[in-house]
Amino acid sequence: MAERILKNISSRGLKNAVKGNEYRREASISYGILIGGYILFQILAAAGLIGHNLQGQFVPICVYISLAVSLNLVVGISGELSLGHAGFMAVGAFSGILMSRILGQSMSFEPAIIIISMLFGALIASLAGFVIGIPILGLRGDYLAIVTLAFGEIIRNFMNVLYFGFDGNGRLRFAFNHTIEGVENNDRIITGAIGATGTKTMATFTWGLLLCLFTVFIVLNLKNSKQGRAIMSIRDNRIAGESIGLDVRKYKLMAFVVSAALAGMAGCLFGLNYSTLVPVKFNFNTSVLILVFVVLGGVGNIWGGIIAAALLTVLPETFRQFADYRMLTYAIVLILVMICTYNPAIKARITGIWAKINPVKKKSGSSGKGKGKKSRKGAA
Amino acid sequence: MADKKDMRDERHDIDISDSGHAYENRQEIYYNDNVGGRAVFVDSKEQYDPDEPYNDQVFIPEKDRDKAPILQVKNLGIDFGGLTAVDNFNLTLGRTEIGGLIGPNGAGKTTIFNMLTKVYEPTRGEIFFDGKSTKGMTTVDINKAGMARTFQNIRLFDKLTVEENIKVALHHTTNYGLIDGMLHTPKYRHEEFRIRKEAMKYLKIFGMTKTADYRAGSLPYGAQRRLEIMRALATKPKLLLLDEPAAGMNPSETSELMETIREIRDRFQIAVFLIEHDMSLVMGICEGIVVLNYGRVIAKGWPEEIQSNPKVIEAYLGKSRGKMEEEEEKEKADIEKALRKGRLESAASGKPDRKEGE
Amino acid sequence: MKKNWTKFVVVALSCMMAFMLAACGGGGSSDAGEASPVLLGNTGPLTGPAAIYGNAVKNGGQLAVDEINAANPDGIQLAWQAEDDEADGEKAVNAYNKLMDDGMKVFIGSTTSGSCVAASEKAFEDRVFELTPSASQVAVTEGKDNVFQLCFSDPNQGVAAADWVVANMADAKVGVIYNNASDYSAGIFDKFKAQYEASGKQLVAVEAFSDDANTDFQAQINSMKNAGADFVFLPIYYTPASNILIQADKIGYAPTFFGVDGMDGILTLEGFDTKLAEGVMLLTPFIATAEDEATQNFVAAYKDAYGEEPNQFAADAYDCVYAVYGAMNAAGLDASASHEEICEALIAQFAGDYVASGVTGAEMEWNEAGEVNKTPNAMVIENGVYVPVK
Amino acid sequence: MNLLTNIISGLSLGSVYAIIALGYTMVYGISKMLNFAHGDVIMIGGYMSFVMTMYMGLNGWLALLVAMAICTLLGITIERLAYRPLRGTGSLAVLITAIGVSYFLQNIALLIWGANPKMFTSLFKGMKPIHAAGGQLTITMESVFTILANIVIMILLTLFVNKTKAGKAMRAVSEDNGAAQLMGINVNQSISLTFAIGSGLAAVAGVLMLSAYPVLMPTTGAMPGIKAFTAAVFGGIGSIPGAMIGGLILGIIEIFSRAYISTELSDAIVFACLIIVLLVKPTGLLGKKISEKV
To answer: What DSSP designation does B215 have?
Structure first.
């Protein structure tokens, strides 16, 4: 009987079936892009072929890659729309900066400062993720999205009234208004809306790469573990997930908290790349920007997100030649790219044209048309 | 975050490694009266009286009488708004019984499954699963207690592979924590290796090992149904609830399925309770059958009894007994059509319904 | 097909990447030939909510450069390039780097403080002389020997405002409405409060708003009214200030409003009923309606070129260009000097005795910390024009 | 008296949110997409009205009609060019496109009208405010008309949706797109109509909002847009009365938290209230319960 069923399956159905497990492939492509890109750009930079503009973007690109990958954990793998990722980035950035300043008083070994600050940023951001996640993860779909948006705004609003500084004895103190007891105004580290100033910029491209590798490592590993499978199965079918004994809230929360921690880490490196950082930076637009990376790279597709994050960070810079029309061009490109990647008819046409001009012509086009669509559409 | 190692490891400690052989030895198993034989009722002459509140212990196959029943349902009922969907439902299911739940469309069969698995909270009545009341338990608790189900409109994890679908079901017996999962420690590797082998063993039951790497959502319909059963089974249940397992299958697939269900019961020594419109399957493997109409039990008994029960025929045909013979002929054709149609309908409704859930 | 699609995406993306590399990398090669003008660079918000300030600086700088080039065809020729930074530190660094790629010799600062702090850090590392027209935060210049401000620093403004109020409005009940999401506004308020309270007085009411909620000020105005404030300090830009004036007028609340340099521009707001601004006081170094010749020429030329009244930002940028040009001439530099040479020479000038005059100040001098020394004037709006407070 | 003043300004601000929220809620109901460009349609409406009155010398009310017509066209065009090609590909892709459209509108406005803010002339300029309680209480005409407009629009819209053929078709499409199509309803037309109405109302909201809070900039619509979206969710997204109630409550909470709690944290308080409401009623105040057939 078994043989018969198999024959049935292979003769009728499997023609249209899609191979699904591509972890190895996904991992090798992701790591390959990151390491290859790093080596390539280091060489180009050493050879003097890259201008200041692009070199200056190495760290932010890495940060955005890391943010895109971590947001993918929520949007792609857990299947929930989050519009407040920048909030966690902010928490990580400001707590990481604080930690770096505290450590900076007694330490001068930068790698240790960076690592401890990033871990601290991740810890605080994951706590924020946990506190926020517990009440809201019972919500569904767009309602969850609006609540994440709300929390992102609340975090930022809160940052606007948060003041930190060292008092005379080098101890950290904080307040919710301008005057912190015992702290000279010049010794303030974080000053509400003015943000953090006087941060020692320690971030380098290499740290950026390490951050990206670590993020990708965690997310891919998680995806390919029992927890990741539980998260994805709840995404695919919540009721079936419950029916096989998966605690929906627990696994949604897990994805949310891990994602927040990674975002906090990335935020910390971002904070350490600029001597000043204002809370306004982490507004709704930044959250959306990260979401754009994820959607454009293909929801759930890690390496797609990496490429999209890198390209879309650089893109507005290359549009500087359009001067006044820069952001307009960006908007138009964004709309066109979305339509071209997601509209089925246009996509089929592009794929068709590409198949014709494809330099490596393989006669393996036996598979059905709709598949690429299906797999890329993701958890939309 | 290591998950509590629960009792289900020991639950069916049956070696399923040689499932390949099981198929070869099938002949033997099916003709073994002790295990696969037809249920014998204590007093089969006595007709089931639906109006008597709780009269039901007697309907247990002989082989299960010395063991406590796996499931006892007393006066179960549920209202939606003012509408009573199910009322006064009683059931006792033997430890290794294959029970059937039939009835016309909209009779409330799936609602009963949903109450058993706590997708819906019953308005009235009690459910005792494995001797314990399920009051206050959630769907998750129910599964952990040892009840697993499939769905009428298939609910697979579409974007996961076939193998992963089984592995998810093995979640609670996979013994490593979040940190192991994120860092892929040796413990992770060891456990993953083990559950991969175990998942393959489950896939072997339906001969689906070669499809292991395909996305579940891209499988043909019949294979999806089988995978769903495997997934439920992999949670190591004591009771397996199957909601129209043969919907959308052709007759030969159905008879294969029938044999496999029986084999699963025999090998794992679990109870199976199934909803089905395909009478050949129901009559072929069910030991006890409950017939539901308008949310109420109208008949209980063994297959032959049910087949000849006037109330059942009335439920399916409407009041046709007193009519002319030719009309009866026509009605009979209709019944067959209706039964077949029921099957097709439920098959057709599978896909669009699933979309809603996403 | 799926493979094909993926491949297409990969190839398309790589092409884009290559294009970008070419676009980004290409700029670095511009060498300082004899004929090439000295490039002055600026970053500011040319898009987004703060675009008004960035565009004003961009226009003011361009005007000055055009004037200088036209007036001195034989002297050092200048070029002006303003890049968009969306008032964002990250983008400001990008824009600054773009300017470096394009061969910038002197950095006429970032327009807004937040982004300027980030960019001046880079300018300090790269040894590019920086004179910011309008980034008023202390952190902009702090610890950087090559960074100078042409505007007041926020604390100086706050202190000056407080001193003025204490001296001239001794009996006033003072309330403050400030923007707690703006570093400029919060910075001034911070010092104002400290200085004012140091004189032994208390503010009767303090209210804040944020950029996200800058439309409805009823609550803040009511709070001022209820606290009996008859003198309301508005250390904010003129856009929200105009809103406050309108809404206060609607409920018939008419205290004396007192602004700082950000208030300038309120009279030229298109569609604004200037009657509402009658009696508003402000402490500012620049007023577009000033009688002196330099200002009038500047205003006329600006209106001619851009069709609108210049505001304080445009004036600051205009002065920046002239100040840098003057200092370069004073140091005897020529157009072929590298940005490091220019930087050292200009530091010597600015930290030394160099005096510049322009439309925002007659005799501006700088100290080593990079702060400018000029006196703000207290002005009051009467009949739609600024007149000095008597 | 203070309390009354605050209630009135809350209702007035809330009415603006409510009218904007209508656009969000109707579009969401019919096409299940979050149209983040809606706030920028308000801004365009404001600029149109401004241009008509200031440069073309039109009467304010006529200018409002022109602005409505232009925004209606704009809404239909946006839907046709940017959203329709992506229909059925999941809400995320459309969400990102909507954000692209939002950037586009903001930057087009920046190029056309420049970065300098314009002061919008109130539609009710010259009308005397109502003074009550011996001058203690002042009610501006802007408040009165905004609140009235909100009520009138709500009644008309409810009648339209429930009584007219086109309105019923819209409801059918939002209930079940596929079934509506099978019943012979032109889905494209219904969706276009929804965008048209939503965008037309956005112009009204823009003019009313700018009459009360007159600063007009290319980014003017962004924050009210987000707040109105919050209001729509507050009331239960997809529900027309929900949008009204959500908008009014949001406006009152915002004004009250500013007046009595903290001006610095008023936004945080508004969003916190939203979260609390959603925790108690996961689909908003008047939202339909989502139930899933098992």
So the answer is: B
